[in-house]
């Protein structure tokens, strides 16, 4: 078993260690590379969002409500609650005729510390559209309205919205509906438990799919990477500099999934202990090793991402005390 | 090798896993129980504070400046920046004739979310005494003034204050000065890298020491557990209900050290990935297993700590989605 670690250092010494499991597969499902346990069952969390958004496009709800690339990007987002994110969400709700109070996602401190601090300073109430998942939820409401389903309980297992999404997730991951674990996500919607390898397969397929809905969601995420995450975050910066080379989506508890369409590959990784600080350097190390293996076949611009490759850690006076750094290699099969 | 895990669950499924290394020793240094790697080298971080405070008492600085049990408790604290913590620190600075600006610790968002939010709401500037380590730093300044050492750079390796503390740490841990790693802590002061087993030995000795300074620091921590951490935190609640049965001190990056004086034992644990949420349930599980082993020999009250034994995790609507729970056992030798 090959291992990939993220080491946290202090004054040049390793202080803490994070183990990472990785699966890299091609669109046929063949395992191309791995680390740790590529069959590890995990919650997909927000890295499932493109697949949770597919029914919105495939079933015609997006067209009906006039959702363009901005709305589709936000439906796939774990956003930072910046003004633009809240505005696009408000527009989606308005187009579908839903009050904000219909959103089942609860508010939480924004992922952007600057936005969170500003809201506290101003005493601004955090309403549901401030949730990092509000675009996904607005999309789910649109799907319910489009089909004439009741909106009450749209976020819960068994509701037609979630049944429709379950079909879609089963289709792309190759995992039978009955074998997909359905759990409750931080935003109250259903989240899915499945092997890393199956998540990677879904991304491999999604990255090269000729299905119109998949193409539209991919292009929406690439057109508006700032809507998929937010200022300074890896999903946003990687897709902004990568110019269509990589499609990447983070999830809570150390999850990251990505597609490299030019290589026909998908990948998914899980930081075993769930540390969210470690999934960005882990993703970039996996991409670096995969791209090195296929040197010459594809070029993915990744300049300017050094602060995500080895994030620095500082003390309370701002001095650098250490960093997070990837150690170890993928095993190519 | 025995293993102790903290599992993070979601809807009844294990989502993330944290490995914990543990050393339990008696005052002679004999290993009584362990999990993972009890010889693991780690940063002691704030769990070293009682030993960093010993010179303050032993050298007469505490008496000279009129530090009572409150000041000694705060010197051992990683406090939550509550008003009482800031007040006691201000009093220590006043007694030693130091301006607050002499504190080398930088400010940071208070460990108490309520205090942090209130400061932001009110626009209160976070000055150095808001640092969770401000009591330790005020004690270091007092030590420098008492000895007539310059206060500039008191926090850095090589300064007489840190040399004096290094002697003390070497004495209690049984690790030679030259073998103790000196690194930079989050508060800018020196922190020490050494094996878990040596940290545990220091606590075993400290818990039963007849040295007046050790007794005074122990009794100060037990007399004012609310000053050692803060509202709702495990160090505070455990020492408040434990009535002298356990002396416990948390450190950053998943460290916890404790003494059970009635059994003559000390222990230290490290959550391998540094997750701060996991060290409280890990400590309570280690204590539970140790006390069960010595059933009848000692009774340590631990009622009302269930929320630390299995901390619940909630989604953004406040519904419980899972918990952190300890799995696995110590190996008794």
Separation of the first and last Cα atoms of chain A: 12 Å
Oligomer: homodimer
How many distinct domains of chain A? 1
- Unreliable stretches of chain A: none
Mean pLDDT metric of chain A:
96
How can the largest sheet of chain A be summarized? 9 strands, antiparallel
Largest interface: A-B, 46 and 46 residues
Rg of chain A from C-alpha positions?
19 Å
What does this structure look like?
The structure is a homodimer of 333-residue chains. By secondary structure, chain A is of the alpha+beta class. The first copy, chain A, has one domain (38-273). The first copy, chain A, contains 13 helices and twelve strands. The first copy, chain A, has helices at residues 49-58, 61-64, 69-75, 83-96, 113-122, 134-147, 160-173, 196-208, 212-223, 225-228, 234-242, 279-293, 306-309; strands at 4-10, 13-26, 31-35, 41-43, 181-184, 190-195, 247-251, 255-260, 265-271, 312-314, 320-328, 331-332. In chain A, strands 1, 2, 3, 7, 8, 9, 10, 11 and 12 form a nine-stranded antiparallel beta sheet that branches. The longest helix of chain A has 15 residues, at 279-293. The radius of gyration of chain A is 19 Å and the shape is globular. The mean pLDDT of chain A is 96. Chains A and B meet through β2, β4, α5 and β5 of A and β2, β4, α5 and β5 of B.
